[in-house]
Amino acid sequence: MSQIYDRVALIGLGLIASSMFWAIKRAGLAGEVTGFARSSETRDTARRIGLCDRVCDTAQDAVEGADLVVLCVPVGAMGSVAQDIASVLKPGATVTDVGSVKRHVIQAVGPHIPESVHFVPAHPLAGTEHSGPESGFAELFDNRWCLIVPPEGSDQEAVARLRSLWEGLGSFVDEMDADHHDLVLAVTSHAPHLIAYTMVGVADDLRRVTDSEVIKYSAAGFRDFTRIAASDPTMWRDVFLTNKDATLEILGRFTEELFALQRAIRTGDGEQLFDYFTRTREIRRGIIDAGQDTDAPDFGRGTKV
Amino acid sequence: MSQIYDRVALIGLGLIASSMFWAIKRAGLAGEVTGFARSSETRDTARRIGLCDRVCDTAQDAVEGADLVVLCVPVGAMGSVAQDIASVLKPGATVTDVGSVKRHVIQAVGPHIPESVHFVPAHPLAGTEHSGPESGFAELFDNRWCLIVPPEGSDQEAVARLRSLWEGLGSFVDEMDADHHDLVLAVTSHAPHLIAYTMVGVADDLRRVTDSEVIKYSAAGFRDFTRIAASDPTMWRDVFLTNKDATLEILGRFTEELFALQRAIRTGDGEQLFDYFTRTREIRRGIIDAGQDTDAPDFGRGTKV
To answer: How confident is the model at residue A297 (pLDDT cuts 50, 70, 90)?
Structure first.
């Protein structure tokens, strides 16, 4: 893979930015990668582990001269970061982001971007429950999707170049518009996360079942929920606050269906339950066929002690 | 590991029974293992793959002369199977089961067990989303918990022997009473399964998001739900119908909490969301410390293509 940008600036040095750095290095996609994080502790860690070719003490320093600026901060912080760096953006450069919500980012970041600079939002659908500069790894984006959400009238060359970067990072790339993105993600990510957070919270609240029981016996289904519910609290707070409408709509539908199934349990309607569970089983098959998961029988059980 | 029973009969040859067979063989825990499945197709498959030392065409044939009879059928079928085999049970033998609900199994099976036979219900907390005779593997129970639920007045020697078997199969073993078991499992397994089924059903229903989008972009959280929601429909129908009260209680609490979080989203209460998500994150740490999951950063992503 050949170099796509001369200089890339990563603003925010958490799981996504650090994984981007290692994946950029793996494929030689950029000449130099600069980085900035608001917390001096994070910057120190980054310097210690060799994360970024150059860690800067201000966002402006990191951005200066960059051909690509990637905003890797929580969605709620995107607007103020964009405002902060706007004056030093190089004409002809591209600003992108990795936020999980797109309509809000476009509204918050867009107005700060100078006419001479391209703004091409994106969202890599990849992550783990870990966060921080030490959590990244080069393979995070391999065979995962990255959704590029170019606002109307975007420069096609800038979009194509960003697409090449994400392909170089290992991803498949699709384009869609912001509202559709936010609805799709409400279904596949935002609502499931809130539900997992809720279920884990309920278990924790329940006095008659001890914490140690919840933990010891988690392998029975609950474990997968706890992994989802261990994701970064700041990031997820911002996701829910900025993709409010779509998330609430999906949660409303979810509650409606849940009530129908609860009613089937209460009335003993085994046929309705069986039919429902048969249908959902088929969806799983589609995901495995699409290469987005494995059906290895020990999946998720980890290495043996 | 030395032999614990001369002859073990497995009634029902799905994921759990087939895994028990391979694990029994791995450790040499029984002299002979017989098996029976209601469907002749399953019996043929079992014979073809060498599952069980002897596959019988009736449950009674399989049970005759067995020191341990393990009921591995869906919870709703336990009672009629017990009735069917009651007359041929060997005096001094133990009947156990692997059902996910215990109060109902005790009520359905208990009355059929002769005075001369021990009845010691159990529940291994292990499984995958796969089912059928070919889905089993010897490692399924390694480092997983098996809960033994002896009714009052159980023979202590019979309980201890069954405990040795499960330890020989690779499990940790705990004892608890049936009602507590059913509540703990409602929290750690039954409610999470219904919630996952519901969320997957909602995604499938939603016309504005295509099936292929749901499948392609599932890595963003939804994937874990689909895996849970791919579990055996018959087994889960029976679980919900027979652990109705505890499951509905937990679902009621879940809905209450979900409404509180939805309200926080609607009113923009970021602090409440952040605090909630911080608390749930800590529970995850406890599960990893307890050895019931791994925090490897590529957990669940499968092998690279």
So the answer is: very low
Angle separating helix axes A156-168 and A15-27, nearest 10 degrees: 90
Percentages (nearest 5) of helix, strand, coil residues in chain A: 55, 10, 35
CATH 1.10.3660.10 domain extents, chain A: 180-289
Residue pair A243/A186 in contact by the 8 Å Cβ criterion: yes
Q: Is it the case that residue A234 has pLDDT exceeding 60?
A: yes
Cβ under 8 Å to B: A residues 93-152: 100, 125-130, 135, 137, 139-140, 142-145, 147
- Does the beta carbon of B273 lie under 8 angstroms from any beta carbon of chain A? yes
Chain B residue nearest residue A226, CA to CA = B284
Query: Per-residue confidence at A212, pLDDT binned at 50, 70, 90?
Result: confident
Alpha carbon B72 to its chain centroid, in Å, reads 10
In the structure, what pLDDT confidence band is assigned to residue A227 with cuts at 50, 70 and 90? Answer: confident
Q: Decide if A197 and B261 are in contact by the 8 Å CB cutoff.
A: yes
Tens digits of per-residue pLDDT, B130-147? Answer: 899 999 999 999 999 999
Going by C-beta distance under 8 Å and a sequence separation of 6 or more, which residues neighbour residue B255? A255, A258
pTM of the model: 0.86
- Residue B55: count other Cβ atoms within 10 Å of its Cβ: 24
Query: Does the ipTM exceed 0.90?
Result: no
Predicted confidence (pLDDT) per residue in B227-283, tens digit: 888 888 999 999 999 999 999 999 999 999 999 999 999 999 999 999 999 988 887
CATH fold, domain B5-176, is Rossmann fold (3.40.50)
Delimit the CATH 3.40.50.720 region(s) of chain A. 5-176
Q: Is B287 close to A215, i.e. CB distance below 8 A? A: yes
- The Cα B126–Cα A215 span in angstroms is 14
Give the class (CATH, top level) of B180-289: mainly alpha
Contact A302 B299 (CB under 8 A): yes
B44 touches chain A (CB under 8 A): no
Q: State whether B215 and A184 contact (CB < 8 Å).
A: no
- Show Cβ contacts of residue B10 under 8 Å, excluding neighbours closer than 6 positions: B17, B20, B21, B33, B34, B35, B36, B52, B62, B70, B72
Amino acid code (one letter) for B203: A
Residue A135 C-alpha, separation from nearest chain B C-alpha, in angstroms: 8
